[in-house]
Amino acid sequence: MNRTLDAEAFNVIANHAEVAPWLGYEDPTEPIDLTAHVSNPANFAFLTPMRDGGYLLLKAQAGLYVAHTLALPSARGRPMLKLMRWGFRTLFTCSDAIEVVTQVPDGHANAKAWSDLAGFRDAYRREAFFPLMGERVGCQYRSLSYVDWATHAKENLTLGQQFHAAIHGLVDNHPQDDT
Fold it and tell me: What sections of the chain are H helices per DSSP?
């Protein structure tokens, strides 16, 4: 997994026939150029090892990032899952991130499934808002806080257990707890 400031792979993915229609651009005939987003060092752009899928985490303001997911069919499934877990760990532990938000347009079952898997929760929705394939559809806004990520990400349980094993017998006031 790697972070990149080079938009070449993201632009290829975004303009692919199976990806572009889902991105919500008003004019589907215009090429999509994500260079300004990917090359901005305030943002985090993560690619799968085969450079066929990625996450864009755009800094909206201090501590707040907006997540966008895009993947070619070859990256869907395990490559994107591994990247998601690594990417959120990197974002929450190596930046000022305390909340990540995303949009899930009506009819985009994959986006809903991935945001559920990441731990996002519903925040609010707007009707007839999101431009999708020539019409305006409803859109659910979702949120993932640092606390939700820290307490629910599966790999954090393992790290917590390793921590407790390491301090066992060294500290008397730190009993095992779910948190």
Answer: 8-14, 35-38, 78-94, 109-118, 146-152, 154-167
pLDDT in tens, 111-131: 999 999 999 999 999 999 999
Summarised one tens digit per residue, pLDDT across range 78-103 is: 999 999 999 999 999 999 999 999 99
Question: Distance from CA of residue 109 to its chain's centroid?
Answer: 16
Give me the helix-helix angle, 109-118 and 78-94, nearest 10°: 50
Helix (H, G, I), strand (E, B) or coil at 22: helix
* DSSP secondary structure string for all residues of 66-101: EEEEEE-GGGTTHHHHHHHHHHHHHHHHHSS-SEEE
pTM attached to this predicted model? 0.90
Helices (H), 95-132: 109-118
